[in-house]
Amino acid sequence: MAFLCENGRRCSLILRAEPGNRVKALVIGGTRNLGPALVKALVAAGYQVTVFNRGQTPGALPAEVERLYGDRSDFHQLAAALAGRSFDLVVDTTLYNGPDAEAATRILGGRVGRYVFLSSGQVYLVRIGPERPFREEDYDGPVMARPPERDAYDLANWLYGAEKRDAEDAFSRAWVERRFPLTSLRLPNVNSERDHRERIWGYLARLQDGGPILVPEGPGLPLRHVYGDDVVQAVLRLARSDTGMGRAYNIGQDDTLSIDEFLPLLASLARRPLRIVRLPRERLEAERLLPACSPFSDSWMSCLDNRRSKQELGMVYTPFASYLGRIVTHYSEHPPALPEGYRRRPVERALAEAAARSGAA
To answer: Which residue of 14, 70, 190, 294 could cross-link 77, Cys pair, CB 3.0 to 4.6 Å?
Structure first.
């Protein structure tokens, strides 16, 4: 594979299929949610895989994977770890701001065949104007004002989306100016058996204790997420082609559900009774129950149009009901500790009982 130099021309550095050599992949991150499945898929595809992270999150990775440790936000640590190395593929799972993106382009410029950045559908949520489902063309345009400090939750989500945009913009400049071989994958909520945010597990834990699930009043936002294995599929499709250099792709399932379709489906798969209690969003927020009591009722939740990824990458997405069944089976066979947000379950029950007494449930 020929590499793109800083001046945009094809470099003379080419990785050849010499005996005993394999194509090389670097995964930055690699131990949370998508990471382990991605690393294992790359190893299975024949890549010589290196993982760079801080080493703070346990992750069961194949024995042949090379481990490098350091803080990717520290330019000197990242540069020292990658000094003299070249990669056919880099997958960046833990990049959240413009300075880190600029550092990556400086450190790996001319030494990477393709750089895949896992971005977020939240880049659309901080925009003014676009409507769901968001298209890639909706990226350009004015960004909403920064929320005030007193609105801590909205501010944190706005910063996440705005800083992911800063990262995408830094990569885009590097592509235009130096042909840094970037492809961005914009992801909605990623559901998987290793979701460290424990969203589906949080719902299941509440179904299993037989109590109610509290959701905000109103229809809620459309649910159009993605299965973790499908994100891995998108990375592998990019790795096997030259498609999409300098492009962004929405990666998201075909199915769009409401919360009222999701919860009965989950209860049916878990074989548990379902009781939904609807309360004003303001009350749930005042009690600090959202988003834990109903993560899929989060007001900061993107819904993405996936047509470009299907047309240009040939993506085929796993049906929601199919992968939800796999996740439910996983949790039934390997139940983790109760989610952090479950600690306030007694408050949820008390609110539901009060609503029942007042006739509001």
So the answer is: 70
β strands within the chain, DSSP E: 2-4, 10-14, 24-28, 48-53, 66-69, 87-92, 112-120, 182-187, 190-191, 213-216, 226-227, 248-250, 276-279
Report which of 317, 331, 345 is spatially closest to residue 195, judged by C-alpha positions: 331
Asked if pLDDT for residue 4 goes beyond 90, the answer is: no
From residue 56, alpha-carbon distances to 53, 59, 65, 72, 212 in Å are 8, 9, 17, 13, 36
Report pLDDT digits (tens) over 164-189.
Answer: 999 999 999 999 999 999 999 999 99
DSSP classification of residue 36: H
DSSP state string for 283-324: HHHHTT-TTTT-GGG-SS---B--HHHHHHH---PPPHHHHH
pTM of the model: 0.92
SS3 (DSSP) at 28: strand
Q: Which residues in 234-266 are b (16+ Cβ under 10 Å) and which e?
A: bbbbbbeeeebbebbbbbbbebebebeebbebb
Rounded CA-CA distance 167/320 in Å is: 30
Q: What angle do CA 42, 44, 47 make, to 5 degrees?
A: 50
Q: Mind listing the pLDDT tens digit for each residue in 31-82?
A: 888 999 999 999 999 999 999 998 877 667 899 999 999 999 999 999 999 9
SS3 260: helix
The Cα–Cα gap between 207 and 331 comes to: 13
Q: Are 179 and 228 in contact (CB under 8 A)?
A: no
330 secondary structure, DSSP code: H
CA–CA separation, 171 and 188 (whole Å): 20
